[in-house]
Amino acid sequence: MLWNHGSCSLVKRQHFFCKEGKKKKDLASGVTITSTDQTMVTKAQGEKVTLLCTYALAAADEGSLDIEWVILQPNEEQPVIMYTMDRVYDQYQMTGRVQFVSQNPSSGDASIDILNLKPADTGTYQCKVKKPPGIQTHRVQLTVLEKPTKTRCYIEGSQEIGTDVTLKCKSQEGTPVINYYWTKTTDTRTAAELPATSSQNPDTGVLLMKNASHVHSGTYKCVASNRVGTDECSVILNVTPPVNRGGRIAGAIIGSLLAIVLVALIIFCCFKKRREKKYEKEVHHDIREDVPPPKSRASTARSYIGSNRSSLGSMSPSNMDGYAKTQYNKVPSEDFERTPPQNPNYDPPKVAAPNLSRMGAIPVMIPAQSKDGSIV
Known about the structure:
single chain; alpha+beta; six-stranded mixed β-sheet; elongated
């Protein structure tokens, strides 16, 4: 079936298409979005963004005005903020962070402000303005990035003359892609050229300087940057002559030996103390309470001599001669037992009466006896 552009009355089917074409024309002549230049916006985390949506109404738009902002998802639309029946509804996922720029969105400005941006706010936002019979939409792609932060500069490896020195720069936080750029600063804080033997990698933040010398010493600054911000850090390089490695090795060996000796000494002291405690415990268990302590030798000898003195006191001088020969040889002393035997022909001296008195003897008068045994 042919289509006649100049007429819509050939058949019913042609008449239907003609009405549809007229309907689309009426909708197109209704609401018009004027802020079509803004399609992509990139902002940093924590900042504020304004998503534009200005519009113009046509005379044919006679219905109630509805404005709706949503985030387009693969299978759904999540509301952000709405204006209908002269009221604003913003109790959705961005409560407290989203608002209309104009206090009266019906005046032709449906733009919104989103405060304190987060990386999760990244997405495609759609503004829909509806005033029957006219309907128009506008989409803006918002990307929220995190600027580089907590950037750290450090030196890896030796800083001796003749060695290869490596300077590294890394941001702990920040949305990729992050680029790193090294510069050398002078005393006046102005940027200077890097040494001729150096090379840097903007992607990894590594600055390599081969065959370092005193010329390489100085302050180096690294600037980390991405699409939304920058961060920087600095490090001081001091190239020094080589150190005496032999002395370091000797010092390390001596220190290790001293540590070993100290550990061995501690172990020996602990073992010795443990043995002493064990010995004291064994001796304590061997003591018996039912065995009396041994008598002293000196006390035994003194008690024996004392008893003999009392016996001497009761004797008379007439019978002391025989007592002196026999009694003193009976002292139960080990010292006397160890002495060599006496000469049998040795006759001990007699003890005089004055000496006996000094020894404590008491003179006693013994009655004389006759040959037959009677007392005289």
